[in-house]
UniProtKB/TrEMBL annotation:
<dbReference type="GO" id="GO:0000166">
    <property type="term" value="F:nucleotide binding"/>
</dbReference>
<protein>
    <submittedName>
        <fullName>Gfo/Idh/MocA family oxidoreductase</fullName>
    </submittedName>
</protein>
<feature type="domain" description="Gfo/Idh/MocA-like oxidoreductase N-terminal">
    <location>
        <begin position="2"/>
        <end position="118"/>
    </location>
</feature>
<feature type="domain" description="GFO/IDH/MocA-like oxidoreductase">
    <location>
        <begin position="156"/>
        <end position="216"/>
    </location>
</feature>
<dbReference type="Pfam" id="PF22725">
    <property type="entry name" value="GFO_IDH_MocA_C3"/>
</dbReference>
<dbReference type="InterPro" id="IPR036291">
    <property type="entry name" value="NAD(P)-bd_dom_sf"/>
</dbReference>
<dbReference type="Pfam" id="PF01408">
    <property type="entry name" value="GFO_IDH_MocA"/>
</dbReference>
<dbReference type="InterPro" id="IPR000683">
    <property type="entry name" value="Gfo/Idh/MocA-like_OxRdtase_N"/>
</dbReference>
<dbReference type="InterPro" id="IPR055170">
    <property type="entry name" value="GFO_IDH_MocA-like_dom"/>
</dbReference>
<dbReference type="InterPro" id="IPR051450">
    <property type="entry name" value="Gfo/Idh/MocA_Oxidoreductases"/>
</dbReference>
Length: 319
């Protein structure tokens, strides 16, 4: 078991505390929160050990789980990594690209491992079809949320869209060529609605929309590639694969056949991948434990978290 400590006991921090406390792969030593009143309250309510000194907690563990506001990710991770501790950092990895790149250097210098909490990589609907997404050429993603004051300290791109940015970067094996985007501030001081068009060197185009002032929640992505269309509903945890193949010479009565202008006939057929229920947050934390104990590469590396942040910041800068 790896000794773990949590930094931050807010809404998400409490979820991490509960899951780490239940996981057989971790020994939860305690948590730190800069708000002493909140720290005492969480300790009294749930029974976790509240450690008032951040350095004392870091010294006592093997892994630090950083679930603090984004502005403090860098400082917390740097303290831990300089003491030789592995770090799990909630998304986005840091507030600035410079901070993220310094953490990459610290990771290598101190021989530790890091993982970024891009939890949608562990969404069962995405896991069910990820291997089927091969060389997509057009991607459309919509991530809409009802207004919640929590998270409005950062633009909607860093709050919501970055989930889809990371997922898309994980399946498009190409460098970003060009980004065009627009964003509008409606309620917050930072953009609440954003749309981005990302063009990749290999010709793939991704069109992303994110809003945190919608009337309903939606998290859907669609991937179009040669002879296939793949739909992922991250919210409902559903996925569908629509494929095409050469039509048989004698199609059945219920076969769906399309014929193009050149007379080529294709048969359309549907696949409904089996989706295995999971706890995505628990999975991301436990796969990180496996990466440490088995000395393998984390599922979402600090480098990948940095790439997602880089694209997100480029989108914000192009508003």
């Amino acid at each position: 078991m790896l000794k773990v400590g949590v930094l931050g006991a807010g809404h998400l921090g409490k979820i991490h505390l509960r899951l780490l406390n239940e996981s057989p792969k971790y020994d939860l030593i305690g948590f730190y929160d800069p708000d002493d009143i909140n720290g005492q309250k969480v300790a009294a309510e749930f029974g976790y050990t509240y450690i008032e000194n951040i350095n004392e907690l870091i010294d006592a563990v093997d892994v630090i789980d950083i679930v603090t506001p984004t502005l403090s990710h860098y400082d917390c991770a740097k303290k831990a990594m300089e003491k030789g501790k592995h770090v799990f950092i909630e998304k986005p990895i840091t507030n600035t690209l410079e901070e993220a790149e310094e953490l990459l250097q610290l990771e290598q210098k101190n021989g530790v491992k890091g993982q970024v909490g891009h939890v949608e990589r562990f969404n069962p609907a995405f896991l069910a079809v990820k291997d089927k997404i091969q060389s997509p050429m057009f991607i459309e993603a919509h991530r809409l949320a009802e207004f919640n004051p929590r998270g409005t300290d950062v633009p909607v791109v860093l709050d919501l869209m970055i989930h889809d940015i990371d997922a898309i970067l994980s399946v498009v094996n190409s460098e970003v060529k060009q980004i065009n985007a627009s964003g509008v501030s409606v309620i917050s001081n930072s953009p609440d609605i954003a749309n981005a068009r990302i063009e990749f060197e290999n010709g793939c185009v991704a069109n992303l929309t994110a809003s945190r002032i919608s009337l309903k929640n939606m998290r859907k992505s669609r991937f179009f590639q040669r002879d296939a269309y793949i739909s992922v509903d991250f919210l409902e945890k559903k996925a569908e694969v629509v494929k095409m193949k050469d039509a048989p010479e004698s199609p059945g009565d219920f076969d769906m056949i399309l014929q193009n202008a050149e007379g080529v006939k294709k048969q359309i057929y549907f696949e409904n991948p089996e989706i295995e229920a999971n706890n995505a947050i628990l999975d991301e934390l436990e796969t990180f434990a496996d990466a440490i104990t088995q000395n393998t590469t984390p599922v979402v590396t600090l480098k990948q978290g940095t790439q997602a942040l880089r694209v997100a910041l480029q989108i914000i800068q192009s508003f």
